[in-house]
Design goal:
α6 runs parallel beside α7. It is built from eleven helices and nine strands. The protein folds into two domains: about 140 residues, 3-Layer(aba) Sandwich (Rossmann fold); about 80 residues, no CATH class. It has about 240 residues and is an alpha/beta fold.
Amino acid sequence: MIIIENLTVTYDGDQLVLDGLTCQIDQPGIIGIIGPNGAGKSTLMKAILGFVPFQGNVAIDGQTGVAAREKIAYVEQKSHIDVTFPMTVRECVSLGFYKKLGLFNNLTMSHWKKIDDVLSQVGLTELSKRPISALSGGQFQRMLIARCLVQEADFILLDEPFVGIDSVSEAIIIKLLKELKNSGKTILVVHHDLSKVKQYFDHLLILNKKLVAYGKVSDVYTPANLQAAYGDLFFSHEEVSHA
C-alpha cells in the first residue's frame, strides 16, 4: 500500500510543482499517471522515492525513508540515462542487485541465472553480450525493465517507459507488466498516450499539480476530469470512450 498525504513539492523556493496531493493506492495493479507537461508526474515518483525534498507524508506498506525505498524498483526516463556507458546488456541488468549487495560484492551463479532468466522474459537473451550503446530504443527500455525485475520489488515505478520505442517492445513490456500485476505487484506508470489508457491501466491518477482524480479507469477517465487536467485541450465524449 502507498499512502500519500498532503504531498507538496516546491522547487527553488517558489516554484510549486505538487500542491497538497493526497492519495491511497491500496491494491496490486497497473496505475497510470497522466496529466499535461509540467503537471508534476515525474516529481511525484521522485517524491515517493525520497529523491526530492517535500512536505507531507509518503508511506510504503507503513514504512518511510530508506526502509520504504527498499520495496521499490524504479526506471527513470531514458533521456536521463547515459546510453553510451561501456557495459554489456547483461552487466547493466546485474546492477539491479547492487542495492542489496553493494558495489563490491561479487555476484554468485544464482544471481547470474536470475539475470539470464529476466533477459529471457524481456526477449533479450540473444543480445545479452551486446554493448548497451548498440540497442534500439525499445531494446534499451526492455533492458531497464529487466534490471528492475531482478530486484524482485513489490512496487515498480516506471517513468514514460513507452516513449520512443517500437510496437514489438511496447507489446512485450505491457504483457510483462500484466503478468507482474497478476503476481501481486503494484506498478505505477507515468504515461502520455491517452489512446492506450483503457488498454493498459486498471486505475488512473490524473494530475495537474493537484490531484484531479484517482480511481478505476472506468470511473475517472471522463471528459470532465480530462478537461480539468488539460484545460483548453478539448476532449469529446467520443474521444474518451474510444481511447
